[in-house]
Structure formats: structure tokens, C-alpha cells
Amino acid sequence: DAKTTQPTSMDCAEGRAANLPCNHSTISGNEYVYWYRQIHSQGPQYIIHGLKNNETNEMASLIITEDRKSSTLILPHATLRDTAVYYCIVRVVGETSGSRLTFGEGTQLTVNP
Amino acid sequence: DTAVSQTPKYLVTQMGNDKSIKCEQNLGHDTMYWYKQDSKKFLKIMFSYNNKELIINETVPNRFSPKSPDKAHLNLHINSLELGDSAVYFCASSLVEKLFFGSGTQLSVL
């Protein structure tokens, strides 16, 4: 699986958009970009994933660059409850060997009042 | 209704003891996992079962033995606990490639 690089930490003001970047310059054509987050003392939570088109759901938007070497997770109106570690993961989909997602260090997002 | 539930939430025990962590999912998923999160917060996969069959077994000591009585349950039994086993253990299940995690079991070996 391709390696990802994320900033160690970021801050965001409550109510503002939080833009979390991720570099995955060695991504292959059949690898998806996944985002999970882990709120303190809880299990990781799936946010969104995409292949090459931008994606949006009730939690966030995912913007993938045209060359697919980087992506940005956008939380449009961050709240204090969005304070968490955010993981960007690249993974081939469809293998029968299960989902061996590899979690890196992630980005600690702190939303400030 | 908790989708992936694991018990106990906290487990404190002495070195050398044997303990089990139970996991159940009510999502109807075929695949279940155990992940370990160490003190540095790295989350690593340990095992994966698909419909009761072991499909992923990372380099985990054989003191760790997963058991899947049916596809809704994946328990983790640990023999001869060591200090280094202290960590948070997460159970998860998946349909296709989206994982759903339990709330974790914090294991402390004294």
C-alpha cells in the first residue's frame, strides 16, 4: 500500500472549515484514499473514501487532486466534537485478503472555541 | 444499539495470567478484525476472520489466539500475559472496505 504523509497537528476555530491535507505521491491507479478519525478514548470512525472524483457525505468532503498524489479532507463547519486524530490511508480495494488498513500517525486536529 | 461491542472495557491483570476479550457485531458483516493500539498510539492489525475463517495473521505471538464461533463473534484469548501486552485492543468488522470499530478494551498487565 502507498505511504501517506500528514501534518502532525492542526488547529481550527469552531465554526470554520477544517482542511486536512494528505500526500500520497506513490499511490497506484487501483488504490483508494480513505479517511478515518479517532476521538480520544474511542475506536476509529470511518469518514469518507474516494478513488479520483471528489466525494461528499454528511460528515465531510474529500478533494483528490487530478494527479491523485494528494488529497484534502474538508470539515465544512468544525465543532468542538471534531477534535480528534485524523488518519489518511491508501488501500487497494477488492482484495479477498481482507481490509489490512495500515494506520499511520495521523493529524491531531484541535478545534478551538 | 451498539454495532460492534467488546467486553470488558477495562482489564487489569497480573503477568502470567490468561485472559479473554469478547467481541460481537450486529451489522451482519462477514469479516471481523482485532487491532492493537500501543502507548505510542500506533494502530496495528493483528488478525482478520472472514466468515469464521482466519485470513490475516500478522506477526503476533502465538500466545494470542483468536476464536470465531460464528461470523458475528470474534474473541481474543491471551495466554501468559506479559507487560508488553498492555495496550488498547480494538475489535472491528467490515462490509467491503469500510471498517466499524468497537470502543476498545484497555488491557493493563501489572
What does this structure look like?
The complex is a heterodimer of chains A (113) and B (110). Chain A is built from no helices and 9 strands. Chain A is mostly beta strands and 113 residues long. In chain A, β3 and β4 (45-50) form a beta hairpin. In chain B, β9 and β10 (98-101) form a beta hairpin. In chain B, 34% of the residues are buried. In chain B, the strands form 2 sheets. In chain B, strands 2, 4, 5, 6, 9, 10 and 11 form a 7-stranded mixed sheet that branches. A 4-stranded antiparallel sheet of chain B has the order 1-3-8-7, with no helix packed on it. The A-B interface holds A 32, 34, 36, 38, 41-46, 49, 85, 91, 93, 96-103, 105 and B 4, 31, 33, 41-45, 48, 50, 55-56, 90, 92, 94, 96-104.
What is the gist of this entry?
The complex is a heterodimer of chains A (113) and B (110). Chain A has 113 residues and is an all-beta fold.
Architecture blueprint of SSEs:
The complex is a heterodimer of chains A (113) and B (110).
Chain A: E1 9-13, E2 18-23, E3 31-38, E4 45-50, E5 55-56, E6 61-64, E7 70-75, E8 84-92, E9 107-112
Chain B: E1 4-7, E2 10-13, E3 19-25, E4 31-37, E5 43-50, E6 53-57, E7 64-70, E8 73-78, E9 87-95, E10 98-101, E11 105-109
Parallel strand pairs in B: 2-11
Antiparallel strand pairs in B: 1-3, 3-8, 4-5, 4-9, 5-6, 7-8, 9-10, 9-11
